Amino acid sequence: MHYDLILRNGTIVTPKESFKADIAVKNGKIVQTGSLENSCTADDVYDAAGMYILPGIIDAHVHFRDPGLTEKEDFETGSIAAAFGGITTLADMPNTAPVTSTALRFNEKAGIAKEKSCVDFALFALLPNESAEIEALKKAGALGFKVFLGTSTGDIAPPSQHVLFEQMKACAEAGVRVGFHAETSALNSYFTSQCMKKTGSPGLLLSEARPVFSEALAIQTAICYAQYSGAKIHIHHVTSLDGVRLIDEAKQKGISVTAETCPHYLLLNAEKYAHKVYPPIRGEEHRKALWKAVNDGVIDMIASDHAPHTKQEKELPVWEAPAGLCGTETFVPLMLNEVNMGRLSLNDFVRLASETPAKIWGIYPKKGNLLSGADADLTVVDMNKKEKIDKEKLHSKSKTSPYDGMKVQGKPITTIVRGKFIIRDGRFTENKGFGSLVSPEP
Length: 442
Fold this sequence. Notes:
9-stranded mixed β-sheet, 13 helices, 18 strands, 33% helix, 23% strand
């Protein structure tokens, strides 16, 4: 049998098991996973001996700033950074300029991404005010809808309560999940004004300025809307013990809610780090609670929330600087390092960053697995490779990182999208524009 590509001698990793096997690829799809006869041939054979082959990692929360804010990032630089980080599919948020809130704007943005992105991409849309636009965006291929209950980059105002309820009902009928940026603007404004008058640890002041109370109230609000509208919801970038408890209670009641957190909330704490991001990095109690929630399954997935700004912007005084951290290129190495430290297993990581995101956002089994017929998206990692993160060597336009100087063990070395090498043994293959729009399966 002849294939387009065969990966030999690697260790396959799924959420449930790890085993030595080969993978055969034809026409961009996985054809066979298992022991292939030596008589099998291919146009290209990749020797993955000593390496682990993961289902392509999905970064389901990025801000590539394209269109309108491309001095910070665009789909070319962002996707190259993602590919070097082992990401095969990414999901971009709608707070660009203009905001992705209509089918027309969605299609324009998809066209830009198609020209520039070297990995596959999905696009979120802002939850619109008209039910007809919900249907149009679903037809255009929107991955899901985003609601900002609290302002972030782009200063998108929260929707009025009655409009949100009616649109949530429309999403329930359409079967589309709604994701929430869970903060409460009025509380943030009040507490920020108070904290700006204080002196002390910048990290702790940032957390106090947008307090756990603000997140908890917003999560409770989103859950209440889900309960009474019947809509499926997702809570983005959970930061706190209080938020975890509310999500756990809602799940136990049978409400359709899923949740994510990010590496910066799992690895950093407000006592030591003053990196500005919304919602803010919390104290050690919350960091530990997030890890427990990840291991207990209350938090379903991890994503980077890659949100770059220029170096000049990030060097402004803390209350003037924009919020957001670069993360898509460091996401996988940081989590592989946690695997090596025993915080979670490699199987757990595949569940949290590949299979579950694909299932939550309706792109499984096309993405998120190594089954026959799935897209041949593969992340090959070397669990022994050590390096020190250097912000100047990252491929984002923004040469900023809270992880600059951090030593990690475990690195993606090869990134394959639909059977094509985007990164091969640490080298970019110049496949700009190879990425394709990924939409929920019917």
